[in-house]
Specification:
The structure holds 3 protein chains of 3 kinds. By secondary structure, chain A is an alpha/beta fold. Helices cover 44% and strands 20% of the residues of chain A. Chain A has a 5-stranded parallel β-sheet, with helices on both faces. In chain B, helix 3 packs antiparallel against helix 4, helix 11 packs antiparallel against helix 12 and helix 14 packs parallel to helix 15. The C terminus of chain B is likely disordered. Classes of the chains: A alpha/beta, B alpha+beta, C mainly beta.
Chain lengths: 120, 775, 171
C-alpha cells in the first residue's frame, strides 16, 4: 500500500495504470503532463512515481530532473514507461535520475511486479 | 488480477482518433522537403507514439505493428536525420487515414482489414531502406535491454551498520514474504540451502558506482529480488568506504559478492540488474551445477559464460571483474547466509511473456463519449454542491415546519429552482463543442482535392471557437464537406483560367462560423467563377424543374440547384458528383431545422450560408415584458436600451415611427402590434425602447419593462410544433414558465417584407429617405 | 378505475399521470372526452397525461386556436384548443377545462402536444368490429382525421386519429 503518482498524457494508459495500481491497494494520483505532475508532487509525498516519457508541456525526462532536485524526491523510485527500447532513451532517463523503466506494451501483472520491485 | 483491460478500450479509441487528428494537422503544416518546426514533429511523433504504446498494451497488435513503422520514420525526422519529403508526408497522411479506419474497425468490433496497411508498410520500409539514413530502431520494441549491471547502494555508509541492516532486512523480509507466498520452492527452509537448491550456483559480483542511490535504486531491493529466485548468500565489501569526513550520505561505497543457487539463467539474473547496468560493475559467473556438490569454479565455464554472445551488455562494464574473494561458499560469518527458496519468482521476469490473447474483437459499445473541459465539470460540481446545501436546508425546514417559517421555505424553494436551472444549463453546456471539430477535417481535404484537381487552393478558417451542439455538429459535417468539395470542383477555376481572368493563381476558400439572430451561420465562400443564373435556369428548364418563360428572381434561380435531380456539372466528377446531390445537402440542413442561402456573383465567386438553429444552445438574453408576456432578446443583438424622448420621435412615410439615435433613424417596432398581443403601454412617448441590430439594420423594439439579464437554454419549437416567424426558439424560465426568444434578424426581415408589400418599395433603408423630414 | 372521477379531482394546476393505471385490455381502448355536447375518443396508449388548464405562453403570429406553449418537465409543447380548431362547443376556460397531452413516438414522428377539451369522460373498451365507418358527410373535422364512430349507449363517440391530430399544424 503506497502512494503513487502516475503521469501519462494518454488517458487510456493513465486510466489503465491507475486502475491497476489501485486494484493492488495503492493510492494513486495522476497527471497528464510533467508540469502538472510536478505541481502535484510538490503538494504531497509519493512513495513512487510512474511516468510516461513522451508528453507535451513537460516530458518525462524533464520531470525526473525536476523531481530529483526536490529534497522529498531525492531517492524516490521513479519508473519510466517507454516504448522506446533503444538504449538512447534509457540512458537519458537514467542520467536524469530515473530508477528504472517499464517497456510498453506491458500488462497489469507486469506493471505491478515492476512497481513492487521498487517499493521497499 | 481482476483488471479488465477492455474498460480502457473506448478511451483508447477516442484518444487515438484525436491523436490522429493532431497528427494530420501537424502533417498538413509541413512543407515537404523543408525542415519543419520541431514542435510540430514532436506532436506528430507523440501521437503515433501514444497510439503505438496503447495499442500494444491493449492487445491491438495490428495497429501497434503498423504504428511502429510510422514511428521509425518519424523518429528519424525528430532526430533531424531525415527531412520529410512531400512523399513522406503523403505517406504519413495516408497512414493516418489507414489508422483511423483500423481504429474504427476495432471500435465497431469488426476485423481489421490490412489490405491498406500492408502496402503502406512496404512503402515505409522502402523509404526507410532506400535512404542513407540509418534505421534507428530495431523492429521489436518489446524486448527490453537484456544488459544487466548491478549496482548497489545503501543509504548508509558505515560498514557494520550497513551489513547489519542489510542482513537483517534480507533475512527477515524474504523469509516472511516467501513463506506467505508458499511457493513450492525447493528445500526452502534449510539453513544450509546453499547446496540444497535445485539449479546452478551463480556468483555475482556487484560493485555499484557511488552515485547509484541518486536514481532511487536500492541495492537491497535488487538482492531481495535475487533472493526470491533461490538460495542466496551475500558478502559485503566495505574496504572502499572512505573516512568519516569524506563520507557522503548520497553515495554508496560498498560492493557485494552474492552466491545464488537457483534454477535460473544468466539472463534472468542480469535482468534483475537491468536498471542499474550503467551504474555499476557487474559480473555473473556460473560456479556450480545443481547436481554437483558445490563444485569449485570451472574456469572455462565461467569465462565462456561471461563472454557468451547473448550477453548484450555492450556498454556495461562487465569486463572488469572484481577481485572475488573466494569462489567457495565460505561465507564470512557476519554475512548470515540467507536461505531463500522460491522456485518461481513471483516478481520478476516470469511475466515477461506478453499475454497473447490478442483481444478478441468484442463488439464495442456504440455509445460515444464527449470530452469536456475541466472548467465545465468543475462548475457542475459547484452547482451540485449548492444543490445539496439547498436540499439539506429544505429538508431540515420540512422536518419541523411552522407557518412563520414560510418565508424561509419560499426562499429555499426559489433557491432550489435557481440551482436546478443553473444545473440544467451547465449540463447543456457540456454538449457544446467549438466548431473547429467540424472544420478540422478541411485542411486535409483541401490538400487532397487540390492535388487531385491540380488547382491551387488556399483555405482560410475563422470563427472556429463558435460553439455548437454536439449532435448538430455531427450531422452538419457531411453537408459541409459536400459544399466545400463543390466549391473546389465547380467554383475555383484552374490556375490558367484564373490567370487569364486577371485573378491570383491561387484560389481561396473561406470557412467562417458565427452566431447571428439565434442561428449559427456557417459560411463557405469561394473566389471562383461564380454561378451563372442563365445556365442554371436553362438546365432547370431542360430537366423540367421549372417551366420555360417563368420569371424568377436570381435568388430563386440559385435555389434551383438544391432541387432533386439537378446537377450542373456536365461531367459528374469524382469529387462532388458522388451521387449525393445538393438536394441531399439541403435536406440534411433542413432536417436540423436550418436553411441554406446562396449569394453569387458571376466571375468573382459564391457564398453558401448555412443557418443552423441553436437547438440546445445557450444564449445570453435580456428579459423584456410586454403585457403579460416575457420575451428574451439575445444580448448579442442589443445595441442599447433607452427611454424614448418624445422630441426624437419622427413619423414618416405614413405612420412609420423613427427614433433619432445619434445619426441613425431607427424604425420603432412595437412588439405588441407585431405579435398581436395586449401591452400596458402603447404610446411611444416615455416608453422603453430596446434598440437591436440584425443583418445590418437597426430597429427599436417598444417594450413595457426591462427585466433581468440571464443565460437561457434555447429549446426548439420545431420539435413539437413548427417554426415560428420572429422567434428563434423558447426557453424555460426560473419559475417554470415558457418564454419566447426573439429572432431579431427574422423580425427585421418580417417587418421589412411586410412594409415592402404594403408600400411597394424598399423600406430597409428608410433612414436616408426621410432624413430631411426628420430634421 | 373511473377516469371521469379521476379527472374531476384534477386540480387546476395539477397533473394526473395515467401511467400505472392497470387497464384490462382486450381490443382497443380509447379515452373519451367532450367538446361541447359531442363525444370523441383517442387511443389511450398515446395519452401522456391529463392536466388542468393553465394559461400558456403565447406564440406570436399563430392562429387563435393555438393557445400557446407550456413546459412539461423541460419539454415545450404547444396547446391547441380542439373546440376552436373543430368549431365545436364554446371555448371557455373553467376549472374543469382540461388539457389532454398526447404523444406519439415512432419512426416517422416524435411529437407531443396538448389539446384543450371541455372534459374527459371515460375509458372506452372497443372490440374491433364496433368501430363503424363514419358517414361521408362534411363536418368541421377533416375527413381523414376520423377513424370511425362507436355507439356508446345513446351517444356516438367519434374516434379520431392521434397521428392526424399531431400533424394538424404541420404545413
Amino acid at each position: 500500500m503506497a502512494q503513487i503518482l502516475v503521469v501519462d498524457d494518454s488517458a487510456s494508459m493513465r486510466n489503465m495504470v491507475t486502475a491497476t495500481l489501485q486494484s493492488a491497494g495503492h493510492q494513486v494520483k495522476d497527471a497528464g503532463d510533467g508540469q502538472a505532475a510536478l505541481t502535484i508532487a510538490k503538494t504531497g509525498r509519493f512513495d513512487a512515481v510512474v511516468t510516461d516519457l513522451n508528453m507535451p508541456i513537460m516530458d518525462g525526462i524533464e520531470l525526473v530532473k525536476n523531481l530529483r532536485s526536490l529534497p522529498n524526491y531525492k531517492y524516490t523510485p521513479i519508473l519510466l514507461l517507454t516504448t522506446e527500447s533503444s538504449a538512447d532513451k534509457k540512458t537519458q532517463g537514467k542520467q536524469a535520475g530515473a530508477t528504472g523503466w517499464l517497456v510498453k506494451p506491458f500488462n497489469p501483472e507486469k506493471l505491478l511486479a515492476t512497481v513492487d520491485r521498487v517499493l521497499s | 488480477m481482476a483488471i479488465d483491460l477492455e474498460q480502457f478500450h473506448e478511451v483508447f479509441f477516442e484518444e487515438s482518433l484525436e491523436g490522429l487528428d493532431l497528427m494530420e494537422q501537424g502533417l498538413l503544416a509541413i512543407n515537404g522537403g523543408e525542415q519543419p518546426d520541431a514542435e510540430v514533429i514532436n506532436t506528430i511523433f507523440r501521437a503515433a507514439h501514444s497510439i503505438k504504446g496503447g495499442s500494444g498494451t491493449f492487445g491491438f497488435t495490428a495497429i501497434a505493428n503498423f504504428t511502429h513503422v510510422l514511428e521509425t520514420l518519424l523518429d528519424e525526422a525528430r532526430d533531424g536525420t531525415r527531412i520529410l519529403s512531400t512523399e513522406a508526408v503523403d505517406l504519413l497522411l495516408q497512414s493516418s487515414d489507414c489508422l483511423r479506419a483500423m481504429v474504427g474497425s476495432l471500435q465497431a468490433g469488426e476485423p481489421i482489414d490490412d489490405s491498406t496497411s500492408g502496402p503502406l508498410v512496404v512503402a515505409f520500409e522502402a523509404m526507410l531502406a532506400g535512404d542513407t539514413v540509418p534505421a534507428s530502431e530495431e523492429a521489436s520494441t518489446t524486448v527490453p535491454d537484456a544488459a544487466a549491471i548491478p549496482s548497489v547502494d545503501s543509504g548508509l555508509s558505515h560498514n557494520d551498520i550497513v551489513e547489519a541492516s542489510i542482513n537483517s532486512l534480507l533475512g527477515a523480509d524474504d523469509e516472511a514474504s516467501l513463506n506467505n507466498d508458499g511457493t513450492s520452492g525447493a528445500g526452502g527452509s534449510d539453513e544450509d540451502g546453499g547446496s540444497s537448491g535445485g539449479g546452478a550456483e551463480w556468483k555475482i559480483s556487484f560493485q555499484p558506482d557511488p552515485e547509484i542511490l541518486m536514481t532511487g535504486n536500492e541495492p537491497l531491493r535488487l538482492f531481495r529480488e535475487l533472493a526470491a529466485m533461490g538460495a542466496m548468500r551475500t558478502e559485503a565489501h566495505t574496504q572502499s568506504i572512505p573516512d568519516f569526513d569524506h563520507l557522503s550520505a548520497d553515495e554508496c561505497f560498498i560492493s557485494w559478492t552474492l552466491w545464488l543457487t537457483a534454477d535460473v539463467s544468466r539472463d534472468e539474473i542480469v535482468e534483475v540488474f537491468d536498471w542499474v547496468v550503467d551504474e555499476c560493475k557487474l559480473e555473473v559467473e556460473l560456479v556450480g551445477d545443481a547436481s554437483e556438490e558445490l563444485s569449485p569454479v570451472v574456469a572455462e565455464e565461467s569465462a565462456q559464460a561471461a563472454e557468451s554472445p547473448q550477453e548484450p551488455a555492450a556498454s556495461a562494464p562487465v569486463s572488469e571483474p572484481e577481485p572475488v574473494p573466494e569462489p567457495e561458499p565460505a561465507p564470512e560469518p557476519k554475512a548470515a547466509p540467507v536461505a531463500t527458496p522460491a522456485a518461481t519468482t513471483p516478481a520478476a521476469p516470469a511475466t515477461a511473456k506478453e499475454s497473447e490473447k490478442a483481444a478478441p474483437a468484442t463488439p464495442a459499445s456504440s455509445s460515444s463519449s464527449i470530452r469536456v473541459g475541466i472548467d465545465k465539470v468543475d462548475s457542475l460540481i459547484n452547482l451540485v454542491g449548492e444543490l445539496v446545501i439547498t436540499q439539506s436546508m429544505l429538508s431540515e425546514l420540512g422536518n419541523n415546519f411552522e407557518m412563520e417559517k414560510l418565508d424561509r421555505l419560499s426562499n429555499g424553494l426559489e433557491q432550489l429552482l435557481q440551482n436546478t436551472k443553473e444545473l440544467q444549463e451547465s449540463v447543456m453546456r457540456i454538449r457544446m463543442l467549438p466548431i473547429s471539430f467540424a472544420f478540422n477535417r478541411f485542411p486535409r481535404m483541401i490538400r487532397d482535392l487540390a492535388q487531385k484537381t491540380g488547382k491551387v487552393v488556399d483555405l482560410q478558417l475563422s470563427g472556429e471557437q463558435t460553439e455548437l451542439d454536439k449532435t448538430v455538429m455531427e450531422q452538419i459535417g457531411d453537408p459541409l464537406v459536400h459544399l466545400v468539395r463543390n466549391a473546389i470542383d465547380h467554383g475555383i477555376e484552374p490556375a490558367e483560367e484564373r490567370l487569364a481572368n486577371g485573378k491570383p493563381e491561387q484560389g481561396t476558400i473561406k470557412l467562417d462560423a458565427y452566431h447571428q439572430g439565434g442561428n449559427i451561420v456557417i459560411e463557405i465562400r469561394d473566389d471562383g467563377r461564380g454561378i451563372n443564373p442563365d445556365v442554371i435556369l436553362a438546365k432547370a428548364i431542360e430537366k423540367g424543374i421549372v417551366s420555360a418563360g417563368e420569371d424568377l428572381p436570381e435568388s430563386r434561380i440559385f435555389d434551383l440547384i438544391f432541387e432533386p435531380g439537378f446537377s450542373t456539372a456536365a461531367v459528374v466528377s469524382d469529387i462532388s458528383g458522388r451521387g449525393v446531390g445538393m438536394d441531399v445537402v439541403r435536406r440534411n440542413i433542413k432536417s436540423l431545422g436550418g436553411r441554406i442561402e446562396i449569394q453569387s456573383k458571376l466571375g468573382s465567386g459564391s457564398t453558401f450560408k448555412v443557418y443552423l438553429p441553436l437547438t440546445l444552445a445557450i444564449v445570453d438574453g435580456q428579459l423584456v415584458r410586454v403585457g403579460t408576456e416575457t420575451y428574451i432578446v439575445p444580448l448579442i443583438s442589443i445595441v442599447e436600451s433607452l427611454q424614448i424622448k418624445p422630441e426624437l420621435v419622427n413619423r414618416v412615410s405614413g405612420d412609420m415611427a423613427l427614433y433619432r439615435l445619434r445619426d441613425d433613424n431607427v424604425p420603432i417596432i412595437p412588439i405588441y402590434r407585431e405579435f398581436g398581443i395586449e401591452a400596458d403601454n402603447t404610446v411611444l412617448e416615455n416608453g422603453l425602447l430596446v434598440v437591436v441590430e440584425g443583418e445590418g439594420q437597426k430597429i427599436g423594439l417598444l417594450v413595457d419593462d426591462l427585466l433581468a439579464q440571464q443565460q437561457v437554454v434555447i429549446k426548439s419549437l420545431v420539435s413539437n410544433y413548427k417554426r415560428v416567424e420572429g422567434v428563434s426558439g423558447a426557453t424555460i424560465l426560473g419559475d417554470g414558465s415558457v418564454s419566447m426568444i426573439l429572432d431579431i434578424a427574422g423580425l427585421i426581415r418580417q417587418v421589412s417584407e411586410r412594409s415592402q408589400k404594403r408600400r411597394g418599395r424598399k423600406s430597409g433603408g428608410s433612414g436616408s429617405n426621410s432624413q430631411h423630414q426628420a430634421a | 378505475m373511473d377516469i371521469q372521477a379521476l379527472a374531476e379531482t384534477v386540480p387546476v394546476e395539477g397533473v394526473v399521470n395515467l401511467e400505472g393505471i392497470d387497464f384490462v385490455k382486450n381490443g382497443d381502448e380509447y379515452l373519451t372526452f367532450c367538446l361541447g355536447s359531442e363525444h370523441y375518443g383517442v387511443e389511450i396508449l398515446s395519452v401522456k397525461e391529463i392536466r388542468g388548464w393553465e394559461r400558456p405562453t403565447l406564440i406570436p403570429n399563430s392562429p387563435d386556436y393555438v393557445k400557446g406553449v407550456i413546459n412539461i418537465r423541460g419539454i415545450i409543447i404547444p396547446i391547441i384548443d380542439l373546440r376552436m380548431r373543430f368549431a365545436v362547443g364554446d371555448p371557455t376556460y373553467s376549472n374543469t377545462t382540461v388539457v389532454i397531452v398526447l404523444s406519439l413516438e415512432n419512426d416517422s414522428m416524435n411529437c407531443m402536444m396538448g389539446f384543450v377539451v371541455d372534459a374527459v369522460s371515460d375509458v372506452l373498451n372497443v372490440e374491433d368490429g364496433d368501430v363503424k365507418k363514419a358517414p361521408n358527410f362534411g363536418g368541421t373535422l377533416p375527413v381523414d382525421m376520423v377513424e370511425g364512430l362507436v355507439n356508446v349507449g345513446d351517444n356516438v363517440v367519434t374516434i379520431i386519429s392521434t397521428e392526424q391530430l399531431l400533424t394538424l399544424e404541420d404545413d
